[in-house]
Each structure stands twice: as structure tokens, then as C-alpha cells.
Write a structure and sequence with these properties.
- By secondary structure, this protein is an all-alpha fold.
- The chain has a domain at 11-84.
- The protein has helices at residues 11-19, 23-33, 37-51, 53-65, 71-82.
- Helix 4 crosses helix 5 (71-82).
- The longest helix has 15 residues, at 37-51.
- It starts with 10 loop residues before the first helix and ends in a 31-residue tail after the last helix.
Length: 113
């Protein structure tokens, strides 16, 4: 921040730090690699919004314990932590999609010999 005149501490980083105390370690690794911090923070915030605080914090810890700092690996760890909880991911549909419940049925009727 000292070398960039227009730079200011980001609210996104503060939000991430509030839910994942070790996120600063991950951010330091990204900085060392020369990653675009706006992009990395933004994509991590999307993971936070998608998976929630507890899952993201667990995934950050697991990622650092593995000695990695890859954002894709962080997303995979988030998804792996979410699956056993059977939590559905939010799915936003357009206004043109009617709100209907789908009744499960035998998919064998679609098989043709």
C-alpha cells in the first residue's frame, strides 16, 4: 500500500479475515507469487458467499496445512467440506423459469432398446 498512492486497505480482505483468521497467510503467499490481489480476494469472497464462513475457514486451514495456495484447490476443498453436510448450493434462475417442484421418477423410461 505504501508504494501505491491510490491504494487503500480493502473491505474484502477485512471481511475474509473476520471469518478465516489464517487468510492473511494465504494472501501473503499470493503476494509473493505476484498474483492480482483484487482478483484473488474477489474470487475468495465468492467462495465465502457460496459456501459460508465455516466451510471457507476450514478450507483455508486445510489448504495451508497442505502447503498450497492455489485458489482452485481452495474451491475444491470448499466443495468437499460442503458435500457431507448435504447443503444445496444456491441456484438463481431467471424470471422466465416457473417455480415448480420436480417429482423424482424412474429414468428408465427414457432408455430405448
Amino acid at each position: 500500500l505504501a508504494t501505491k498512492p491510490g491504494a487503500r486497505p480493502g473491505k474484502g480482505r477485512e471481511r475474509l479475515l473476520a471469518v478465516a483468521p489464517r487468510i492473511d497467510e494465504l494472501i501473503a503467499l499470493w503476494l509473493h507469487e505476484g498474483r492480482n490481489m483484487g482478483s484473488m480476494i474477489g474470487r475468495t469472497l465468492k467462495l465465502l458467499d457460496l459456501y459460508g464462513e465455516r466451510v471457507l475457514a476450514q478450507a483455508v486451514d486445510a489448504l495451508l496445512e497442505r502447503g498450497s495456495h492455489d485458489l482452485g484447490a481452495l474451491a475444491v476443498l470448499c466443495d468437499q467440506a460442503r458435500r457431507p453436510q448435504c447443503v444445496a448450493l444456491p441456484l438463481e434462475l431467471g424470471d422466465h423459469v416457473p417455480d415448480r417442484d420436480v417429482v423424482p421418477h424412474d429414468l428408465g423410461v427414457y432408455d430405448h432398446d
